[in-house]
Design brief:
The protein has 119 residues and is mostly beta strands. The protein is built from no helices and 11 strands.
Length: 119
């Protein structure tokens, strides 16, 4: 079965850094766009970063310049490097896989990993 397993979350002080990891199995990783979303308490899930199959990246304005998304097909893994963290970055972070060219086709979600940035 398809699995996306996030790890690397935790508690960090403002200005600190964390690196999240998403390990994929059960899919042909190289034909999937990969994304990171986050959802704070009482908030809608929002798109944070995307890395497409060709390596092109995009970021939400709120994290641009602070976060970096990357992938390694040999490891079937996508990462989110988070620097200069702010309390507003506190959320559960989710990995998502979307098949390239798969408009109208549902993707896959990981279970999420908690990131807490203290005040």
């Amino acid at each position: 079965q398809v699995q996306l397993v996030e790890s690397g979350g935790g508690l960090v002080q403002p200005g600190g850094s964390l690196r999240l990891s998403c390990a994929a199995s059960g899919i042909s990783f190289s034909i999937y766009h990969m994304r990171w979303y986050r959802q704070g308490p009482g908030m809608q899930r929002e798109l944070v970063a995307t890395i497409r199959i060709g390596g092109i990246t995009s970021y939400a304005d709120s994290v641009k310049g602070r976060f970096t998304i990357s992938r390694d097909s040999a490891k079937n893994t996508v990462w989110l490097q988070m620097n200069s963290l702010k309390p507003d970055d506190t959320a559960v972070y989710y990995c998502r896989a979307d098949r390239a060219g798969g408009v109208g086709v549902g993707g896959y979600w990981g279970q999420g990993t908690q990131v807490t940035v203290s005040s």
